[in-house]
């Protein structure tokens, strides 16, 4: 299809070229030859009267015009995707659909598996998959390629609809044979202890996790002994050590069934952590996604979260 002298298929190609900065990778994704993508880039350059991508050393760099095109291009393609996938109704007993959602390893460990199972078992032709939060997957969500993202409200996107799922709280966890700490932990013990933490924030956005933000705002400094790359890896390092972890209560309770750890009330009044579900604004009226959102809420309610 052509629109104002431009083959609209080239917009998809341009979107991928700006994402990958690679003719080779774009060709692989689109199932085209490299010469075909090079020719398409040539037509795009002619249309916009701009190089769009220029080689600097060994990498391709987007021109200023190409950078300005990225946001509206992503928006146009997300709108188009939402438009052409619309259906008048959705019947889980008959329709074929693959649903997707994003979440941290906290979501995956705590209740993500139950969502996957409940969705897949709701119809003979339904499937679901969970993607880990990261720069690429967040970009996919912004492009409308992911149905739902589950994350703390503090990290939610202002321009997409939101539904609150439940409120999470922070607790402390220790080895159940900790040599110094019993059933409670005081502020003094917390400050004197060494800690196991997950330091990196969520979704590749390098935003601080709420407990770390609160401690920083309160001028509280922890002596960090161990850093691990995910929430679910914090508690398994505690057995046999004197370390303390600050972790979400539901995750701690789930892992405590398998580990020799003790859960304690936190000595500080950490803020509540609202966990929310978001979906792309262009998918707000998609009947399948509306059903999926309702199923997520139903699963959360069934689990008593």
Automatic annotation (TrEMBL):
Coiled coil: none annotated. Gene3D superfamilies: Periplasmic binding protein-like II, Winged helix-like DNA-binding domain superfamily/Winged helix DNA-binding domain. This is LysR family transcriptional regulator. InterPro entries: LysR-type_TF, LysR_HTH_N, LysR_subst-bd, WH-like_DNA-bd_sf, WH_DNA-bd_sf. Keywords: DNA-binding, Transcription, Transcription regulation. Pfam families: HTH_1, LysR_substrate. GO terms for molecular function: DNA binding; DNA-binding transcription factor activity. Residues 6-63 form the HTH lysR-type domain. Belongs to the LysR transcriptional regulatory family. The keyword DNA-binding applies.
